[in-house]
Amino acid sequence: MELVSFLIDFILHVDRYLEAFVTNYGAWVYALLFLVIFVETGVVVMPFLPGDSLLFVVGALCGVGLMSYPVAIGLLWAAAVLGDQCNYTIGRWLGPRVFQWEDSRFFNRDAFDRAHAFYERYGGITVILARFFPFMRTFIPFVAGIAQMTRGKFTAYNVIGGGIWVVGLVTAGFFLGSIPWVKENLDKIIWATILVPGLLVIAGAWKAKRDASVARG
User: Where in the numbering of this chain does the VTT domain appear (predicted)?
Assistant: First the structure.
């Protein structure tokens, strides 16, 4: 329970923790941030780490001169791309071994073919949009690997999506993070970055399930 309480407090007050780390350890903060973003996007069992809020706070710290904006952008972009690439590779390697292909009762060739076709057709925009949805940005690369999405296509959209995500949120923090209202309500903004995308995913899943039920008659 203590660990859970600490994680919740860290997520909601990541600005205080990060500022204290910069003050005490200086440039080591870049290594810490690289590790957090890489793990959050690259290890499928760690989707609860802060991503959006962390990038925004990094931008705010860059805005007040505590961190370097270009160094933060470069390192975090690399961490995001390498993390997704790692997650994709795990899914691509693990999928066939878990399902044992046609020899396993867990494998459904029709479902696999449909998933593969979906990722070949819509995988690019899915990989990009998933960057802005907590949990989805951790699971989508893994599922893309399982579905055997073409590596070259995944890599291209991974680089694009990672750049939009990192540059967009860090830059937003750089320009907006010092505004008094934003600083006073940062905890609410963090909650919004967690809850709003989650509600959108739930609503989308409910609509898809309802449409499928209607289609079946």
Answer: 49-173
Write down the pTM of the prediction.
0.78
Residue predicted with more confidence, 77 or 217: 77
- Contact residues for 182 (Cβ-Cβ < 8 A; gap 6+): 176, 189
Round to whole Å and give the CA distance between 134 and 47. Answer: 7
Phi, psi of 149 (to 5 degrees): -60, 140
Q: What's the CA dihedral at 141, 145, 148, 150 to 10 degrees? A: 60
Residue boundaries of the structural domains of the chain? 2-216
CA pair distance 50, 128, nearest whole angstrom? 18
User: What's the burial of 120, exposed, middle or buried (CB within 10 Å: 0-12/13-18/19+)?
Assistant: middle
**CA dist list (Å): 35 to 2, 66, 73, 116, 118:** 22, 19, 14, 31, 31
- Structure tokens, 113: 């073919």
Residue 3 has pLDDT above 60, yes or no: no
| Residues ≥6 apart with Cβ < 8 Å to 134 | 47, 51, 52, 193, 194, 197, 198
- Rounded Cα–Cα distance for residues 187 and 58 (Å): 15
